[in-house]
Amino acid sequence: MDNGNLKIGFIGGGNMTQAIISGLVRSGHTPQCLLVADPDPAQSERIHSIQADIQVTTDNDATVNDANIVVLAVKPQIMATVIGTLTLPAESGSRVYLSIAAGITLNSLKTLLDPAQAIVRIMPNQPALVGAGMSVLTATPATSKEQKARAFYVAEAMGAAAWLDDEAKMDAVTAVSGSGPAYFYLFMEIIEACGRDMGLPPELASKLVRQTAFGAGRAAVDSALELDTLRSSVTSKGGTTAAAINVLEQPEFRAIVARALLAARDRSIELGKEN
What we know:
- The protein has 275 residues and is α/β, with parallel strands linked by helices.
- The protein is built from twelve helices and eight strands.
- The chain has two domains: 3-173, Rossmann fold, CATH 3.40.50; 178-274, ProC C-terminal domain-like fold.
- The chain has helices spanning 15-26, 41-50, 60-66, 76-85, 106-112, 145-156, 170-178, 180-197, 202-222, 227-234, 240-248, 251-274, and strands at 8-11, 34-37, 55-57, 69-72, 96-99, 118-123, 133-139, 159-163.
- It has an eight-stranded mixed sheet with strand order 3-2-1-4-5-6-7-8, with helices on both faces.
- α7 (170-178) crosses α12 (251-274).
């Protein structure tokens, strides 16, 4: 079956579901093949504002039964309750379940669903909301090559995607890319504030920071060069950039960043145990 005609059902119609649907519609997926179950009429309106032909219902079971791919897009704290209310089809066939809930492990999902089911866990990040996310996928042994390809197709609707064989490393993924956007936003906040303190108009300071961050990110993604090489290409000996980098390269700066990422990883591990 052509991916564009796969029936993809979403349990939960929140922001990440809307981001995935927007990406799928942009890529040419047949809108009538997108199914969303959500009890909130406001979410229904937002989904129909993306494309009027998307099917929206309050019936979780109907969505699961009709779908080739089921995306479990509810908050982690209600995942067990929502799955517990589902009447799962007796024959799963080629159906694959995708979870985008943070901290819910494959073992937990196998317990909630069925160890024989094809299950993929996806860790997206917030830029997925604008189609520029980074998603990492890991799957149960019961997931076939075709089912993995279908899961990857959904993940790519949010931006870039990559597979991870060892789920234990997903906590590190959470620290680097899941939480990562917040680190960049904080650094941007600091630079913007410094720009204002040096006398720049607030609107200009904001524009300089946002466009510089966008351009640097784009250059890093598009270039085959290592990050330190890109940094060096901007840093002339004895120049203004070198003066700033000399301050940032103090040992405590790298240590603070490392402690921050380790704290995020360790909290991800704790949340996984709680779920």
